[in-house]
Amino acid sequence: MNYGLMIEAILYLKAKSLKVEEIAQIADCPIETIESGIIDLMAEYSNRETALEIVETKEGYCLRLRPEFEELANKILPVEIGKGALRTLAAIALKHPISQSELVELRGSSAYQQIQELMEQGFIRRRKQADGRSYWLSVTEKFHQYFEINDLSKLIE
C-alpha cells in the first residue's frame, strides 16, 4: 500500500490540520509509517509544481493551497459572513464613513471582532482619524463587486 497517497487522501478529506497520531489512527498503521510518509510527501510536494502544499502547523499537518494562490481563492470562493458581521457590514455601508467608536455604540462590543473579520475578508478598510482617537470605517471596492452595489445612496432612498 502507498501510504503517501493514503496520507494525502486523509489530509484532503479532513480539510484541517491533523496530528500524526490522528492520521495513523485513521490509516490504521504505525505512527512511524505515517511520519516517514509525511516527510516523503512533503518532499514530493516541494519538488513539483503544484498549487498545493503539505505544511506543519501547531495543530498538526495539513494540505493547503500555497499562499500565492490565496487572492485567487478569495475571488473564486464564496465568502462566509456570519449574521452579526453582515449586520455590522450593513451599518458601515449605510453610514460610511462611520467611526469605529460610533459603530461599537451602535452594534456592541462584538463589533470589534466583526470589524477585524470584515477587514480580513477585504470588505472594509479602516483609517485613523485626524485626532488619532478612533478609526474611520468604510466599504471597499470588493464590497461593491461582491454585493453588486454601485451606488450606496440608492440603498437609503
In helices, the fraction of residues equals: 40-55%
Count of individual beta strands: 5
Architecture of the largest domain, according to CATH? Orthogonal Bundle
Find the CATH topology of the largest domain. Answer: Arc Repressor Mutant, subunit A
Please describe what this structure looks like.
The chain is of the alpha+beta class and 157 residues long. It has two domains: 3-72, Orthogonal Bundle (Arc Repressor Mutant, subunit A); 83-156, Orthogonal Bundle (Arc Repressor Mutant, subunit A). The protein has nine helices and five strands. The chain has helices at residues 3-14, 20-27, 31-47, 70-76, 83-95, 100-107, 111-120, 141-147, 153-156; strands at residues 52-57, 60-65, 98-99, 124-128, 135-139. A three-stranded antiparallel beta sheet has the order 3-5-4. A hairpin with a 6-residue loop joins β4 and β5. α1 (3-14) crosses α3, α2 (20-27) packs across α3 (31-47) and α5 packs across α7.
